Amino acid sequence: MITRGEMPQPRRACVPAGGGATAYRELPGPGRWAHSLAGTAAFLLLAAGCALRVRRDLLARLRRSQEVAEAAQRALLRPLPARLDGLALAGAQLSATRGAAIGGDLYGAVPTAHGVRVVIGDVRGHGLPSAAAAAAVLGAFREAAYDEPSLAGVLRRMERALGRHVRDRAAAGHAAGAAAAGSAAEEFVTVLLLQVAEDGTLTALNCGHPWPYVLRARAAPRPRGALPPAAAARTAADAVPAAPLPVPAPACPWPDVRALDGGDPLPPLGVAPVPDGLEAGGCGRLGPGDVLFLHTDGAEDARDAAGRFFPLPRVLAGIAARQPAATPARLVAGVHAALLRHTGGHPADDAALLAVRSDRCA
User: Fold this and answer.
1) Given 3.30.450.40, 1.10.10.10, 3.30.2130.10, 3.60.40.10, which CATH number is that of 80-219+252-358?
2) What is the pLDDT of residue 75?
3) What pLDDT does 111 receive?
4) 329-338 long-range contacts, Cβ below 8 Å, gap at least 24?
5) Three-class SS string for the chain?
6) Which ranges carry the PPM-type phosphatase domain (predicted)?
7) Averaged in consecutive runs of 10 residues, what is the pLDDT profile of the chain (362 residues)?
8) For the chain, does the N or the C end have fewer beta carbons within 10 angstroms?
9) What pLDDT does residue 240 have?
């Protein structure tokens, strides 16, 4: 028999309450603490296991999504061959949609009996919604570039492919609402078609697209007082021996970066029909060692935090000056990295970059 003095007294914890009051809470005995801790530990282990399972599932889904995106990118923008008929090529794309590897920009190059034909284009808008139109236009180019004897014929095939895509999308948009149908009806694409002949002659058709830049190696200036090579050869026999002038060490070739002059462009595809009797215009020659740098407006229109545009010609000149023997791949990679730095890693529009260098003999 337990007397009053032997009764176990419950333990209490003093907890301050609001207004200066004090609340007391009875604590469980030693046995109850052990059961409570065991239950809490079991719950935490179960929660951790569930969290790890969910994390593994999410990572697996993310990997599958990335694989699908990479497959779609390879189908839309097939990797460019490193070389085509004496031309070295490299390209890259930057999507404005976070997590997307493809967007509304397109480029491609194919060897044909008429020369190497190159295309670069930009679909209205950006990100994944523009990828379908880019796929339609680029697919038409890849087929027509081999068959059509003229660039005008290639352009008309691309125009028809875009028209079919717009009609199909508009028909599907009517079921989704008037806004979707109207958006499809306003779709257009800027396109630049180039042909590099065997002798380097350039012909082009431009539908509202930025003209590319040409990088040429410009010889270093002669020292003051030095004669041109031809004049020096004529006077070599009659020259009076004299102390040689101090000549500085030869400098690296100075890069000459200029926009290709091809005249006024046509309206973008989808805005106005391609005119009848259209012929591609000549726009110079791509000589040995010259580099043609093509881009979409997402490159030059990119702004930094202060609202300044991306200085593409200056960036190209800087890369060429630092690396006179830079390959097209390094040139594209340098511009791509500079563009990301300029936009803080968050571009507002898609951008496509394509470099073509002539490695042919003179």
Assistant:
1) 3.60.40.10
2) 60
3) 96
4) 329/82, 329/90, 329/355, 331/90, 331/291, 331/293, 331/355, 332/90, 332/91, 332/92, 333/92, 335/293, 335/299, 336/92, 336/94, 338/310
5) CCCHHHCCCCCEEEEECHHHCEEEEECCCHHHHHHHHHHHHHHHHHHHHHHHHHHHHHHHHHHHHHHHHHHHHHHHCCCCCCEECCEEEEEEEECCCCCCCCCCEEEEEEEECCEEEEEEEEECCCCHHHHHHHHHHHHHHHHHHHHCCCHHHHHHHHHHHHHHHHHHHHHHHHHHCHHHHHHHHCCCEEEEEEEECCCCEEEEEEECCCCCEEEEEECCCCCCCCCCHHHHHHCCCCCCCCCCCCCCCCCCCEEEEEECCCCCCECCECCCCCCCCCCCEEEEECCCCCEEEEECHHHHCCECCCCCECCHHHHHHHHHHHCCCCCHHHHHHHHHHHHHHHHCCCCCCCEEEEEEEECCCC
6) 89-358
7) 53 52 52 66 79 82 65 66 94 75 82 96 73 88 95 96 88 61 68 96 96 80 49 46 40 71 91 91 93 94 94 94 88 95 89 94 76
8) N
9) 44
| Tokens found for residue 186 | 């306003």
Q: Where are the domains of the chain?
A: 33-76, 80-219+252-358
Q: What is the pLDDT of residue 187?
A: 83
C-alpha separations of 30 from 6, 37, 95 in Å: 18, 11, 62
pLDDT given at position 149: 95
Torsion angles phi and psi, residue 43, rounded to 5: -65, -45
Q: CA–CA distance from 214 to each of 259, 292, 294, 321, 360 (Å)? A: 6, 5, 9, 14, 16
CB 280 within 8 A of CB 161: no
- Nearest partner of 89 among 109, 74, 103, 105, judged by Cα: 109
Q: Are 224 and 280 in contact (CB under 8 A)?
A: no
In 3D, which of 96, 150, 91, 95 has the Cα closest to residue 331?
91
Residue 166 and residue 324 in contact, taking contact as beta carbons nearer than 8 Å: no
Structure tokens at 127: 């990100």
